[in-house]
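In the laboratory, one determines a bound structure by crystallizing the protein with its ligand and collecting diffraction data. In a computational setting the workflow is compressed into a single prediction: the sequence and the ligand go in, and a structural description comes out. We illustrate the idea with S-adenosylmethionine.
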Amino acid sequence: MSLAEKLSLYAEDYWDFSEYRNETALVRYPAVMVAPMQECIIKEIIAADNTIDCILDPFIGSGTVLNEGKKLGLNVIGFDINPLATLIAKTQLEGIPQHGIHDSINALNTRLIMSVGNVSAHNFFNIKKWFNEDIILSLSVIRHAIMGESDKRIRNFFWCCFAETVKRYSNTRTSTFKLHAKEASQIIATVDDSIDFFTNHIRQQYKKNICNDIITDGKINVVCGDAKQLLSAIEDNSIDLICTSPPYGDNHTTVTYGQFSILPLLWIDNKDLSVWDERLLGNFSAIDTASLGGAIKRDRENSNKYANYLIGISPSKQKKVIAFLEDYESVFRNLARILKPGKLMVLTLGNRRVDNQEVRFDRFNDDLAEKVGLELDSTITRNISGKRMPKKVSAVKNIGSVNSMSKEYVKVYRKVDVNG
Ligand SMILES: C[S@@+](CC[C@H](N)C(=O)[O-])C[C@H]1O[C@@H](n2cnc3c(N)ncnc32)[C@H](O)[C@@H]1O
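The predicted complex, in structure-token form:
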């Protein structure tokens, strides 16, 4: 039975996973994929092809695909431009050593007690805009206590719990992924119990999700960097399976992965972050600018090439869409190049709206696939419910705020085997 036939046996609403909530997230990252859905698809693929040894995700985010791949015994390779994403993914993939963790937590608690009042305040640009002074002192204590941990995997786990703490006690709103200061009255009312929150979070997270120090034989290769560059270093026809959820080009508007991550990143010790370019932490939007479609370059010559996907979008907004499509095309071509003939590329994606027009990213992927020698094997359509996405996107002139995407597509492409 073909993969398409197998996938079609599932009831249509099976893929909605409407009851699914990601309750065990170590750090709540934007636009996280539905883990059981990826698990199911990868399982079906490897059940049908026992020669698959490795899985590549060029945009790992918090690492959902690689986690599922690893659980199923595959070697995993993943990239992300955002150092917070690679920290979270690595921490989960590598697990934390069972042996030693209790002693480390006890020692951390002791250092926390000893450090109160004895640590100088951490500092970075505009820190006082984003954190109250008492909270800066408490977070500095936590930071110092974590730096005293000698085991790198345990330290990474502590940094992840710290990232959640930093987000929670910052002055930025939780209703958006963008940095947007809360009302002054809310900021004044913030109570500093950040050290208690942090220690509780460690206890819960340890119990919930990383208590199994799962050691598999699979290799883990997670790199922080630009997929455009990293993919070009991979050999032709060398990857068994590609599975990812690409960014959709709204990293400057609604799903600002970089702005979401920058405050924790400015608190975490640089030595424990794989910052591949120091400029990334130089301002609050540098990561989003370095991300796919973040930098607007040669727009004019390409507007015709992408005209089909720009209908109804005003010229000023077209530029951003073009920049994204252009970057994305270069990544897609590389993915097709490195995939082994006959093997599969699985993309979970959605169509965002620009100027209240749907950008047919699903169609764009189908068109690109055809151009580079991939054939569409199957498409799964699912209704999005639990995904951590803003329900509304910013206001559009004369219309007010508009709904963001409500459907997601899983596109399965197979690389044509010219010899097969
Ligand atoms: C949709 S998210 C992936 C979500 C992920 N699948 C999950 O479940 O958490 C897309 C990711 O692409 C990353 N990204 C954007 N541009 C990139 C680039 N040029 N190279 C590598 N990663 C990039 C973003 O930082 C973001 O984490």
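The pocket of S-adenosylmethionine is lined by residues 29, 31-33, 59, 61-62, 64-65, 79-82, 85, 226-228, 245, 247, 257, 291-292 (CB under 6 Å). Keep in mind that any predicted model is a hypothesis to be tested, not a measurement.
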